[in-house]
Each structure stands twice: as C-alpha cells, then as structure tokens.
Amino acid sequence: MFLVDSHCHLDGLDYQTLHKDVDDVLAKASARDVKFCLAVATTLPGYRGMRELVGQRHDVVFS
Question: Which InterPro entries does the annotation name (predicted)?
Fold first, then answer.
C-alpha cells in the first residue's frame, strides 16, 4: 500500500534551508510511502511555474 498527497504546494516550499530541490522533497515523501502527488498552483503565473518545476515526472501531476 502507498499514499497519495492529494493537495500539495511544491512551489511554496523552503528550498533554501529545508530542501535541496523538488527531487529532494519527492524522495523524502517516497521514503514515507507517499508515491504520488497532486501539486496545486493558486495563480496562473504559479501554474506556469509549477509546470516548469514539476517537469515530466511520472509521480506528480499539477493543477
């Protein structure tokens, strides 16, 4: 069994002190059995940035 994070904001995390990058965040989540994420943007520019941040990953979709 695995978990799905059905509402996360990958673009709003602290990448200066808590996480290296989005790959680091997803690796930490996976280590805790979170295998799929729905990353949510709150603005149109945020959506565009999320698209760039998430890229072509198979374990993340964005809205």
Answer: DNase_TatD-rel_CS, Metal_Hydrolase
Mean pLDDT of 23-34: 97
> Alpha-carbon distance 17 to 33, whole Å?
23
Question: Domain boundaries in the chain?
Answer: 3-62
Average pLDDT estimate for 40-53 = 91
Q: Which of 37, 32, 43 is nearest to 10 (CA)?
A: 37
Angular region, 33: left φ>0, alpha ψ -120 to 50, beta rest: left
For Cα atoms 41, 47, 48, give the angle at the middle one, nearest 5 degrees.
155
